[in-house]
């Protein structure tokens, strides 16, 4: 505990504008506690949860992030990508604006390529810019750039579930040489799987809205992020979104046991419904059944039957029913 406290004191006392200053954390690492501010040569971090740092070097350079115009000439680079959520900011000099309109500056993050955030707070008196990264975002480089100057400006990214399928929606305000969005899914926010892709607008100065549905039914906690690919092969990651999906029954049938009419309920759109007897013989089939669909059981003898549905995404579920 004493080691961490002394290290923190050393960090906040480091001069803000030593352009060639370097911050190093060895293999033993350090933990920055939730909501604890840390200032490293003008870069400020206030994490939303405990942040572990190990085997990290932070360097500062005057080479701006490329854009139109290029970013400011104050660029922080971590030696290892950092997954971070919380407030992120930096101090800059007027001489570092590099032709950018100060009032339009946004925090910019990335690794191989970069995105500008939206809604950054700029104090032109103190020369300080910050933004709150509400969800975990993976990056190794932090700087500031004028809104719309980088290939993609991501306005929002939302994930929700419909039944046990995850649906993703995201919006951009500007795109320049954007190629496609790769959708990635993970169980631990560390190891990622590609579950699909969506073509980007390539060039746009108006809001673009995108949608994707993960075709695999899932339960439990899952993480999603976007890998935003440019036409030149460069890329940047969005923030990470997590989703908790409890086990959802796609199909409900009632009443059960049934004597006359059986009603069908579903949490997703259905492609087909099949009624079969105990031996598996198909007795009845219906295409695109609607919510509340009724199936007459009056003509069938007492016994055990099966209702099978297939969703428009190809998923199937079977429920056993008893006819009195």
Residue share in β-strands = over 45%
One letter per element, helices H and strands E, the order comes to HEEEEEEEEEEEEEEEEEEEEEEEEEEE
Q: How would you describe the shape?
A: elongated
Based on secondary structure, the structural category is mainly beta
How would you portray this structure in words?
With 324 residues, the protein is mainly β. The chain folds into 3 domains: 2-146, no CATH class; 152-245, Sandwich (Immunoglobulin-like), CATH 2.60.40.10; 251-323, Macroglobulin (MG2) domain (Immunoglobulin-like), CATH 2.60.40. The protein has one helix at residues 2-12, and strands spanning 22-25, 30-32, 38-40, 43-47, 51-53, 56-61, 75-91, 105-110, 114-116, 121-123, 128-146, 152-162, 165-176, 178-186, 192-199, 203-204, 208-213, 220-230, 235-237, 241-245, 251-254, 261-266, 270-277, 282-287, 293-296, 303-311, 316-323. The strands form 5 sheets. Strands 1, 3, 4, 6, 7, 8, 9, 10, 11, 12, 13, 16 and 17 form a 13-stranded mixed β-sheet that branches. The radius of gyration is 27 Å and the shape is elongated.
């Amino acid at each position: 505990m004493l080691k961490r406290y002394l290290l923190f004191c050393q960090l906040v006392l480091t001069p803000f504008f030593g352009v060639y200053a370097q911050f190093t954390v060895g293999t033993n690492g350090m933990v920055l506690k939730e909501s604890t501010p840390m200032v490293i040569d003008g870069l400020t971090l206030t994490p939303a949860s405990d942040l572990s740092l190990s085997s990290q070097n932070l360097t500062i350079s005057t080479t701006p992030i490329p854009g139109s115009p290029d970013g400011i000439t104050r660029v922080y680079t971590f030696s290892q990508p950092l997954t971070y959520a919380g407030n992120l900011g930096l101090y800059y000099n007027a001489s570092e604006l590099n032709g950018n309109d100060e009032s339009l500056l946004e925090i910019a993050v990335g690794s191989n390529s970069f995105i500008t955030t939206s809604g950054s707070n700029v104090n032109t008196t103190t020369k300080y810019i910050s933004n709150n990264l509400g969800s975990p975002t993976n990056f190794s480089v932090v700087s500031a750039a004028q809104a719309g100057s980088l290939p993609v400006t991501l306005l929002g990214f939302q994930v929700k579930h419909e039944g046990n399928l995850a649906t993703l929606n995201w919006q951009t305000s500007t795109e320049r040489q954007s190629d496609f969005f790769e959708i990635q899914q993970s169980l631990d926010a560390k190891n990622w799987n590609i579950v699909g892709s969506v073509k980007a607008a390539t060039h746009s100065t108006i809001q673009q809205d995108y949608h994707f549905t993960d075709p695999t039914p899932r339960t439990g906690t899952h993480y999603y992020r976007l890998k935003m690919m440019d036409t030149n092969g460069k890329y940047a990651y969005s923030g990470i979104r997590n989703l908790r999906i409890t086990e959802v029954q796609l199909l409900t049938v009632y009443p059960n046991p049934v004597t006359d009419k059986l009603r069908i309920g579903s949490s997703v759109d259905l492609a087909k419904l099949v009624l079969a007897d105990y031996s598996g013989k198909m007795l009845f089939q219906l295409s695109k059944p609607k919510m509340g669909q009724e199936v007459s059981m009056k003509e069938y003898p007492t016994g055990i039957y099966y209702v099978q549905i297939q969703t428009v995404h190809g998923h199937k579920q079977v429920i056993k029913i008893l006819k009195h």
